[in-house]
Amino acid sequence: MALDAEWGEPLTDSVEDKEAAERHLEFQLGWFLDPIYYGDYPSSMRLAVGDRLPRFSEKQAELLHGSLDFIGLNHYTSRYIIPAETSSDQKLGWLEDSSITRLTEVEGKPIGDKGASYWMYIVPWGIEKMLKWVTDRYNRPALYITENGMDDEDSACNCLADYLHDSRRVKFYQDYLFHAARAIKEGADLRGYFAWSLLDNFEWQLGYTKRFGIVYVDFRNGQKRYLKNSALWFGRFLNSEPLWKHSLPNKSFPVQSTEQIHQECVYA
């Protein structure tokens, strides 16, 4: 089972913010995983949703128990979490029931650098906390990062070299993989990692306006494909010593300079 997994960081150390952040994770991940591991929805959902939340029969709970091989996490970003202000006339829905407010910045300071998509903020420490939370809650299950990456804006004004020299994406993967390795050191059974994405592609309602790929696809000229620096970095990274063996904040690998990219277009 693969699930969308946005980390929720309590804005402060207050009990209210911590409970709201935990509720955010329970409504997002516990909604699907708690029935499989514990036979019922999280207690926070039971309390908030009441009779609108179905109940499992004993037979259903038995069938669900242990019915997955691994937990896949599609993780990209994180948010600060605070309790939401509620009113008697608020509509019913998943977000309203969770009674949380998701914040991308505090006092003008964003939680992380901005990606191209409106929802994309780069928060490397979030993946470590997410992996540790799932590990602790579900007794060290087998985990895979089934999606992780960042996007660039597509623009007809940019030249090919601008897309191929994707130093921000290289740093993104260095930082996120470093924090994933830290989670492994702390006991997470992380068995695999999939970058999103191999190729630039059609991104849901955003279409071809956002580019997540480590390989550039020229949609205007026969869909030719060119390796970005991030693809070259990944090749060197995968042929190096395992990241978890290193105690340094990041392990760097040489990538192409802008001049090299102008001189040489590498086809995938």
TrEMBL record:
Cross-referenced PANTHER family: BETA-GLUCOSIDASE 42, GLYCOSYL HYDROLASE
Signal peptide (residue range): none
Pfam family, one: Glyco_hydro_1
Superkingdom field: Eukaryota
Record's protein name: Beta-glucosidase
GO biological process: carbohydrate metabolic process
InterPro entries: GH (IPR017853), Glyco_hydro_1 (IPR001360)
Family that this chain belongs to: Belongs to the glycosyl hydrolase 1 family.
Listed GO MF terms: beta-glucosidase activity
